[in-house]
Design goal:
Layout (H helix, E strand, L loop, with lengths): L2 H52 L3 H23 L11 H13 L8 H5 L8 H18 L1
């Protein structure tokens, strides 16, 4: 085999090994710096909530969750929103916050009001669609 062919094969081998090593390193760093802390914070929050709920301190859990909604809503919109897929899944957390304020009838904090008002119309949930179909079938049965 000629020198050029051996050199080409060697460079190709180094390139492939480098690509695999880079992919593995990127995956490990992603898990370590992004996903690991996310799951750790989520698990910690759930465990603390469970501890408080087991001690009949549901009011404290509720107040904490409501207090955390505005800063988390702002952070999500300002930092993470742009990295989410360009479909309804990027809006879902914000729609859930919006839905909380609709259900609770609490006043929307001024710092997140522009965020929630700029959202596209929320599609109906599966439960809402089910209730709508049930209401339509009852209406049809009554008209017959």
């Amino acid at each position: 085999m000629g020198k050029k062919i051996r050199l080409t094969i060697l460079l190709l081998f180094v390139f492939v090994i480098g690509g695999v090593a880079g992919h593995v390193f990127a995956h490990v760093m992603w898990m370590r710096n992004a996903m690991g802390p996310f799951y750790a914070r989520s698990l910690t929050g759930i465990a603390i909530d469970a501890q408080l709920l087991s001690k009949d301190r549901a009011d404290e859990v509720f107040k904490l969750k409501v207090a955390l909604m505005p800063p988390l809503t702002q952070s999500y919109r300002e930092i993470f929103f742009k990295f989410m897929p360009d479909n309804n899944s990027r809006y879902n957390p914000l729609w859930q916050v919006q839905r909380y304020y609709e259900i609770s009838e609490d006043e929307i904090p001024s710092e997140i009001k522009p965020i929630l008002e700029s959202l596209p119309k929320r599609p109906l949930t599966s439960c809402e669609l089910k209730r709508l179909k049930e209401a339509e079938s009852l209406t049809q049965q009554e008209s017959e």
